[in-house]
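Example 3.2
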Amino acid sequence: MIAEVAGHLLASGRQLVTAESCTGGWIAKACTDQPGSSQWFRGGVVVYTDELKVALLGVQPGTLAGHGAVSEATVREMACGALGRLGGDVAVAVSGIAGPDGGTADKPVGTVWFAWAMRAPGGTDVHAAVHLLAGNREQVRRQAVVVALRGVLGS
């Protein structure tokens, strides 16, 4: 799939940036595993704590307080912050609960929010989606990488 992402971004002359929490840099790793990725991948940040989401991506403290780190509002701000601070043309942001603990009734283990932001004429287009992924910690994280990259293909 990463070869498809590379081809998609190269064909459109765009560069990708990432803002990762629960995936811990796995999306960036997948990108840089592809030879020639410097032509379409600018880089990314791993922001595991709320403090770094604020400091490095400009996520608003009120967003985190009101919605939590694993929320649509937060990943939207993460994706926009990545575009604004890292450059690029397309950003993907991921925040979730990979487990085995940390889940709640409202946000069980496996809940992962994604956002994709694209520079567009007149502004930035952002869309988000939530997935409830099954499996253990590694399986949830692995699936999250796949969902994130599929979303880039749709950009």
